[in-house]
Amino acid sequence: MEIFPTPQVVHRQPISGWLSRLTLADGLLGLILLAAAILRLANLGYLPLSDTEALQALEVWRFWQPEAVMLSAGSPAYFSLTSWLTQVFGFGDGVMRLIPALFGLGLIGLPWLLRHRLGTQGALVTAVLLAISPLNTIASRTVGGDSIALFALLLMLIAFIRYQETAAVRWLYTLFAALGLGLSSSALFYSGLVTLLLAWFVHSRLGLSLFVEGWHVKPTETNWRKGTAVGIVVFLLLSTFFLLLPNGLGGSARLAGEWFQQFGGARTLDPLLAFVRYEPALVILVVFGLIWAIVRSEPLALFAVYWFSGSLILLLLQRAFMSNGLLLTLPTALLAGILVNAAWRRRWDWFSGIAGGVSLAGSFVIFVNLARLGRVAQVNPPESTIYLMVILLAILFVGLVLYFTASEDATAVPQGVLLAILGFFIFYQWGTGWWLAQEGANDPRERWVSSGTDFAMRELDTTVRDLSRQLANSDTQLQIGTRLDVPALNWYLKAYPRLEQLNALPLTPTQQVIITDANPELPLAVSYSGSDFAIRRLEPIPLTEPSATILYDTFRWWFFHQSTAVTPVERAIVWVRADLLTGQP
After folding, report:
1. Cα dihedral value 78, 84, 86, 89, nearest 10
2. What whole-number distance in Å separates Cα of residue 284 and Cα of residue 276?
3. Which of 115-119, 163-167, 173-177 has the lowest mean pLDDT?
4. C-alpha count within 13 angstroms, C-beta hemisphere, residue 491
């Protein structure tokens, strides 16, 4: 009998699994996602909720209250996902914005699923452009369903391409799940869906194939039914708060009606102007991309061109629908990624590095001196001549270097120029996106913003809470009457059950606190003591100065966030009953 078993030799196996398959490109993607997370998640609750945000946030809060709930506006998908989240993390401003931020972060990773078509470099560049996009950043930090809609649109397109190329049924299910998610997200999804179908129609009519080996997969009847069932289930669950709120289906149906209502209306071109203002990198790259795609006839690039063209036409038809400006970022980022991958496919050499380094350095020299020129041009015209000369010399020097580089190696110039464009605008658009995310989202002097909640709203909230502790010996039992129907104000006063909406001031008011607008004729000054707070910022008053002055003012705002434009402020007065302050009966 063998008491001690014979020792066995254990052969160590090489490290295996997904960790061993990580590449440098995977690491770069991780850094891009980290940068995108910083932009989208840092200080998420710093800005007070705007009125449009507060309307949707109030619906989430009211659902968990004893009174009946009617879903009246907003995104059903946002409502369903955020409502569960609040039961874990509460009802803070940051929690209200967390779901859009997570979908905005997920959008950055989607191009990696299409890297076999975009190329590794193209997928990374597309991810970078979406990550630093100021418009996508602000959408990811705004309560609502626009960020969810953008994610669903890009995922649906990728799943469609991958299913046709691989016949893997999981991609068909993903396609229908993305469709169900999008139909419950936002009216913006309908803009994307219509323009995608239009692009596919034009693309197929021209005899072009969107796939590597052409259309070769047709779903079987069984797969079609299963995929449809997946889409219906996702749509129903997200529309009805996982079947707990059946009338949410009406909210999803209302999204289509809201989209149709966007046709006509204002004659402005604010969505297009906002895209040009906040996405200069995409504007420049899409010009090069349009020319390159038409010359090279690359199928996926041409599809992006048709998608962009359809989105542009729709934007001109729905001039007042600001969210359509977000839609333009998807096809332009895809087209830019394809263009850059084609240019960088060739091996880099010294000429490419020289072209890129000189172009990038020249871009920063021009940018800095252009900013200085704009600051001093009005106040000290002679000094502005110096900066103008530096700009012209920088342009001349960069042009000469590119000319001589092209004479030695023509393909090195587009490589270097594209690198310089990306390098410069990563710096520029990161700064713009950070400003919008941290400060500008509630400033109507920004083109993307029509009205915003003033920071003093938080001071009003703190003051009312302190009064409740002093006068009612409770955080929430203060007796409040308000004549203002401002969604943001209602949000910050939501926890007070004794809050009463007043159509008119009573002849003998008895409420401990009354909140009114800043009307000097109100008869409360006799028996109440008031303090005023700014609660809302409105669109700035148009400048009446000469065109040159207005141009310089716009320039200073873009570069230094300094403006002489007057932004009207709506104020509220918090009145406290005088006898409570003095201790008299």
Report:
1. -120
2. 10
3. 163-167
4. 24
Judge contact between 330 and 110, C-beta under 8 A: no
- Distance, in Å, from the CA atom of 354 to the CA atom of 128, rounded to the nearest integer, reads 23
Integer Cα distance of 51 and 436 in angstroms: 17
Question: Residues 287-291: contacts with CB within 8 Å, 24+ apart?
Answer: 288/339, 288/418, 289/332, 289/335, 289/336, 289/338, 289/339, 290/335
CA distance 130 to 55: 28
In sequence order, what are the residues at sequence separation of 6 or more whose Cβ sits closer than 8 angstroms to the Cβ of residue 474? 468
pLDDT at 64 over 60: yes
Contact 307, 192 (CB under 8 A): no
Buried b (16+ CB within 10 A) or exposed e, 91-116: bebbbbbbbbbbbbbbbbbbbbbbbe
Cβ atoms of 377 and 384 closer than 8 Å: yes
Burial of 271 (0-12, 13-18, 19+ CB in 10 A): buried
pTM beyond 0.85: the answer is yes
How many CB atoms neighbour CB 225 within 10 A? 11
Q: Are 528 and 578 in contact (CB under 8 A)?
A: yes
CB atoms within 10 A of CB 50: 22
pLDDT digits (tens, 9 = 90+) for 477-499: 999 999 999 999 999 999 999 99
Please count the CA atoms within 13 angstroms of the CA of 356 that sit on its side-chain side.
Answer: 17
Q: Cβ(77)–Cβ(184) under 8 Å?
A: yes
Looking at residue 407, its pLDDT comes to 84
